[in-house]
Amino acid sequence: MPALGAWRVPVAIALGVVVVDQLAKHWAVTWLGDDRTIDLVWTLRFNLAFNNGMAFGQAGGLGPVIAVVATLVIVYLLATLRNESSRISTIGMGLLIGGAAGNLIDRLFRGDAWLNGAVVDFIDLQWFPIFNVADMAINVGAALLILGSVLSARREGATEELESSDEADQERAEGAT
Fold first, then answer.
1. Given 16, 25, 33, 83, which residue has the most CB atoms within 10 angstroms?
2. SS3 category, 55
3. Dihedral class, residue 47 (left if φ above 0, else alpha if ψ from -120 to 50, else beta)
4. What ranges do the domains of the chain cover?
5. Which among 90, 102, 93 has a CA at the least distance from the CA of 133?
6. Residue of 121, 124, 166, 169 with catalytic role
7. 84 with 144: CB under 8 angstroms?
8. 113 vs 107: CA distance, rounded Å
9. What are the residue ranges of helices labelled H in the chain?
10. Would you give per-residue pLDDT tens digits along the chain (177 residues)?
């Protein structure tokens, strides 16, 4: 598969995630300001929060460092796209890149200074840290990459087992003649 072809699906997924994430965050900032909360179902509600740290509000104030690390991760993932062979891994890579880019955009542009912005979070389960669409994409993408890796390892193991079985059959056939 040519390098450009390997990029199409994950980049399209990443762009889709960024668009949905940024539209959702725009909606949240516009409609959930002034301490407005929208209760939906059970404990699920929309509640606006800003996170200048990393996942789950940890490491507050390290936004610039997190932004640089996120940029490096995105570049690394884009560089390794051509190595992805399974659909699951390709989709996972696209989700991961899109989620990281969505949150990086917040860090770059939603603050008083470059790289000093806070990520917009608004999905609140009330028993779990508040998160956003990009966070969901990152977690689902990471899970798909792990699943793709496990399935790939199983396929390789089954292929090696089949090849060694074929070699043994061939050796027995040669020994019988």
1. 25
2. helix
3. beta
4. 3-176
5. 102
6. 121
7. no
8. 9
9. 3-31, 63-79, 87-109, 133-176
10. 345 566 788 889 999 999 999 999 999 999 998 788 899 999 999 999 998 766 655 555 665 676 777 778 777 777 776 666 688 988 999 999 999 999 989 988 887 666 667 899 999 999 998 999 999 999 999 999 899 888 877 777 666 665 666 566 666 666 666
Query: In the structure encoding, which two tokens stand for residue 177, read together?
Result: 């003649």
Tokens coding 8: 């199409």
Catalytic-role residue among 21, 106, 124, 135: 135
- Pair of tokens at residue 75: 């570049």
Distance of CA 24 to the CA centre of its chain: 17
Active site residue 124: no
Distances (CA, A) of 164 to 145, 159, 169, 175: 28, 9, 9, 16
CB 94, CB 14: distance < 8 Å: yes
Residue 106 CA to residue 116 CA, distance in Å, equals: 9
Task: Sheet with 37-41: list strands edge to edge.
Answer: 37-41, 44-51, 119-124
Query: Judging by beta carbons within 10 Å of its beta carbon (0-12, 13-18, 19+), is residue 13 exposed, middle or buried?
Result: buried
| Residue 135 is a catalytic residue | yes
